[in-house]
Amino acid sequence: MTKTFFLSGLMVAALSLPSHAQTADGGISKDMLREIRQTQQRTPADRALFNALAANSINALAANHANKGAIDTYFSIETPTQSITDQKQSGRCWMFSGFNVLRSAFTQRTDSLTVNLSHDYLFFYDQLEKANLFLQGVIDCADKPIDDERVRFFFKSPLSDGGTYCGVADLVAKYGLMPSEVMPETFSAENTSKATSLMKSKLREQGLKLRDMVAEGKSKADIKDEKTRMLSTIYRMLALTMGEPPTEFTYAFKNKQGRTVTEPKTYTPMTFAAEILGDKPVTGSFIMVMNDPRREYYKTYEVEYDRHTYDGTNWKYLNLPMEDISRLAIASLKDGRKMYSSYDVGKFLDNKRGYCDLENYDYGSLFGTEFSMDKAQRIMTYDSGSTHAMTLTAVDLDKDGKPVMWKVENSWGADYGQKGCLIMTNDWFNEYMFRLVVDKKYVPAKTLKQYEQKPVMVMPEDPLFLPDN
């Protein structure tokens, strides 16, 4: 009772103090709030703006009408079109874009054959491998406290459906490929959130048990056996939601008109991958470049733990100015080769027209302010970063050979945007394009040498190194 009375007395005393004494330095005081309110004009124009914004979307009101004209869809350099895919409600854009590159190269090499690859198949093993990456990472860091930065990194996101092209390369090298007809999409493959959420919960539970085993001094053999049992549980959850991958199947290839033109043949996923890739495996055939104006150009960087398999390769990239990245892209497109690329796709996107242009919306005029951060500032403040992978398929060059427009194949279905594609101005491309994967064939010797430098290790928490989804 005495304690309660004492606290009540303090509260009464606090209420009797001047208003500025109730707010610590840095808080909004009554005087500050009064000053803020006095700056508001409350003109008829402001009232009209409020009424408009209260009943309409911001993009609808900020849309630049002068930029609503017809879009020029001619491209001076364009790779052959192929069927558009749909990742549905999943974060697998990295795999869809990667497969677009593989099947395009296959069609180009065979001239008449086409193929649709099973995303469900490789995603099954992607999730199993990421589960192992988490569990083994927990074991490796088990001597650290639970609030250690690296331990938090693992437990914060033990599993995700996002990724990068390096994941495609490592997974295909380890597990091969499969036609979509043999292992088609399931509901949980196309709608990943619930199954992923449940597996994340299970993995966190399993991770805590592994930490306890290490703390109790259990042998490495016992811990390995327990991890294997844990992965068996994850495997079962994956098999029930996506189907268990076949180890052998029979398949006959079709031509561009959809007619079967080869004799049925028995494949394993590895022999089928060899058929698709020819004599050029994915691993080691490419370099990844990135435009990150925060960091020194012509240096190589590696992202720790940014990989899909524990025994795989971290994501490594060469940091280049956009002019150099454009030259690499143009060289590849001139030879008919599509490329994996990634963007901050939501910025200034007119999704009805599938058009990315800095002039699409005038947010500054609508709100009477300016949005003036440059690319480096947007990255460092988490305002912008790579969010979505798409397949670079075309470029339009001016009379001097400079890029004016670019086109990408998206994975949001054939009815989205420009028949499943997006068109972007070169100004938008420079501001919101981040990653490009290009075959070494199109990379100058000097650039290849720069890529082979000893990389600077950067942390996966960096704002630019979130997975593409």
| Strand residue percentage | 5-15%
Query: So what's the overall shape?
Result: globular
List the total number of helices: 17
Mean pLDDT: 93
The chain-level structural class is: alpha+beta
Tell me the major beta sheet: 12 strands, mixed
Would you count the extended β strands for me?
16
Low-confidence stretches: 1-22
Distance between the termini: 58 Å
User: Helix fraction?
Assistant: 40-55%
Query: Radius of gyration, Cα only, in angstroms?
Result: 27 Å
What do these coordinates show?
This protein has 469 residues and is α+β, with helices and mostly antiparallel strands. The chain is 42% helix and 14% strand. The chain is built from 17 helices and 16 strands. Strands 1, 6, 7, 8, 9, 10, 11, 12, 13, 14, 15 and 16 form a 12-stranded mixed sheet that branches. It has a two-stranded antiparallel sheet with strand order 2-4. A two-stranded antiparallel ribbon has the order 3-5. Strand 10 and strand 11 (355-356) form a beta hairpin. Helix 10 (193-215) packs antiparallel against helix 11. It is globular and about 75 Å long.
Write the layout of secondary structure elements.
Blueprint: H1 2-15, H2 30-38, H3 44-55, H4 58-62, E1 77-78, H5 93-110, E2 113-114, H6 119-140, H7 149-156, H8 165-175, H9 187-190, H10 193-215, H11 220-242, E3 249-251, E4 254-255, E5 265-267, H12 269-277, E6 286-290, E7 300-303, E8 315-319, H13 322-334, E9 339-343, E10 349-350, E11 355-356, H14 363-367, H15 375-380, E12 388-397, E13 403-409, E14 421-425, H16 426-432, E15 433-439, H17 445-451, E16 456-458
